[in-house]
Design goal:
With 266 residues, the chain is an alpha+beta fold. It is built from two helices and 15 strands. 18% of the residues lie in helices and 51% in strands. The strands form four sheets. Strands 1-2-3-8-9-13-14-15 form an eight-stranded antiparallel β-barrel. Strands 11-10-12 form a three-stranded antiparallel sheet, with no helix packed on it. The termini are far apart.
Length: 266
């Protein structure tokens, strides 16, 4: 008799536990189904709904160009967290290309007074806040983006190819207070030494940046990102960046930019 009662109690415990576990699973499924239905409804109303997105962009700054890779995770229907990596080059507004013709040979153009190429690499965090739904799948969603991060200023010596003292010899020269080559005697310069020259001598300067922007997503399908972004960017470095002779060195750089972006969501 005791064995029968013990078996009955164990059976009851197992049955109740199984029933509660099943009810919990069914509740989770119902909540998940409700969430999916809500997301579908929001998407039909023009909201951009996703769990994760990956975006590649090419941007044109008022002082150069760049490209970036961005990943994003949705937090709410209107807010997402963005993480980005960007690289690019800054161009000085006073840069002027000159060419030298030696006999019948046209050398590489060079930039008068330039002493360094200014590249940058940035890693950052931003928030994207939806401020205007598409209205329908053929509309345009408008988002505000604001954030910042760390910036690395990378200076590469700018080499000139100059005529040698003997015969047809040439030499590659970088700036070492030799103004007579970089400023006073352009006829002595044959041209620039080329893009790859000087990469082994990159100098790193740390900095920070902040940006704010508007993103216009015109993609027809929610799974794909097709957007244009316009914004403002401020970079501040730990020291002044020597860039061009006869121009004021700066450590703070302010730019406007426009970018075209492509990617996917899931």
């Amino acid at each position: 008799m005791k064995n029968i009662v013990l078996i009955a109690i164990c059976t009851l415990i197992v049955t109740v536990g199984y029933s509660q576990n099943r009810d919990a699973k069914q509740q989770k499924k119902a909540e998940r189904r409700e969430q999916i239905n809500r997301m579908i409804s929001q998407e039909e109303e023009g909201a951009i709904i996703f769990q994760k997105q990956t975006v590649f962009g090419v941007k044109l700054n008022t002082d150069g160009y760049g490209m970036f890779l961005e990943t994003g995770r949705m937090k709410t229907a209107r807010k997402s967290n963005l993480y980005s990596l960007e690289i690019g080059e800054r161009k000085h507004s006073k840069e002027e290309k000159l060419s030298t013709i030696t006999g019948t040979y046209l050398s590489n153009p060079y930039i008068y007074g330039k002493i360094n190429n200014f590249y940058y690499a940035k890693i950052g965090y931003a928030q994207q806040r939806l401020i205007g739904n598409k209205g329908n799948k053929n509309g345009v969603a408008i988002s505000a983006i604001y954030g910042g991060g760390l910036s690395a200023g990378l200076l590469k010596p700018y080499y000139l190819k100059v005529a040698g003292r003997q015969g047809n010899s040439t030499a590659d020269v970088k700036y070492k207070n030799n103004d007579s080559i970089f400023l006073d005697n352009p006829g002595y310069v044959l041209g620039s030494s080329g893009f790859s020259k000087g990469f082994g001598e990159l100098k790193f300067t740390p900095g920070v940046y902040a940006k704010t922007a508007l993103r216009f997503d015109y993609g027809r399908y929610n799974e794909l990102v097709s957007a244009i972004e316009v914004g403002l960017n401020l970079e501040v470095y730990s020291k002044k960046m020597p860039w061009m002779l006869l121009q004021k060195e700066k450590r703070m750089f302010f730019q406007a930019y426009a970018a075209i972006e492509f990617g996917k969501r899931k």
